[in-house]
Amino acid sequence: MTKPVLGYWDIRGLVQPSRLVFEYSGTQYEDRRIVMSKPDWLAHKTTLGFDFPNLPFYEDEDVKITQSLAILKHLGRKFGLDGSTVRAKAEVDMVLDEAADVRNPMVALCYRSDFSPALMKEWVEGSGEGMKSVEDRFLPLQIKLGSNDWFVNNELTVVDFMIWEMIDAYSLLFPGCLTKLTGLTSFHSRFTQLKGVKEYLESDRYKAYPIWSERAKHGFVELK
């Protein structure tokens, strides 16, 4: 195998942090976009030789795995972005899980069959019964970052790639929702300037949309 293969739907979705890691590392890889119907994919995936056939998938000379966080953690170890101490490595795992907890409700909202602008406004503001605002969801991450440049041990790790992607998606889908969290918006701007990342984001290979699949009620195309 000449290049690692990263396979996923032709969207940003759950795999974009791993794409960003590859771009930052300068490593050549095959960004394999799966363009087929879901029924065709369900039939095809069992032929690929994975223990748990799914998207995203990743394959290199050493491993053949699925699951987005497993892939991101593997790339962290591969490229030295998994924390430089035992404590930092543990914190990387913890903050990745925390970030997923912030991301997943947004994914669920975008795929809700009853999605509407009114529901989106209520969700962003946290005005519904038992709801948290977007700011409240992100505040613990801003506190964790503090005055540092990066989230764990003030060193660049895969956590930063995942949280940047999450902030970027939230900001596109719910404009203005994070403007008061200036620590996070500064982090977002700083990360964008990383060598490799900056060039990728300015290239024709990068597309802001679709974030989620065509089945989503919000995030497949940019709302005008």
CATH topology of the largest domain: Glutathione S-transferase Yfyf (Class Pi), Chain A, domain 2
Give unreliable regions as ranges: none
Q: Identify the CATH architecture of the largest domain.
A: Up-down Bundle
Radius of gyration: 18 Å
- Give the class from helix and strand content and strand pairing: alpha+beta
**Helical content band:** 40-55%
Shape descriptor reads globular
User: SSE order in H/E notation?
Assistant: EHEHEEHHHHHHH
Count of alpha/pi helices:
9
Strand content: 5-15%
Q: How many separate structural domains? A: 2
Number of strands: 4
Sheet of most strands: 4 strands, mixed
Sheet with most strands: strand arrangement: 2-1-3-4
Family: Belongs to the GST superfamily. Mu family.
Protein name: glutathione transferase
GO molecular function: glutathione transferase activity
Function: Conjugation of reduced glutathione to a wide number of exogenous and endogenous hydrophobic electrophiles.
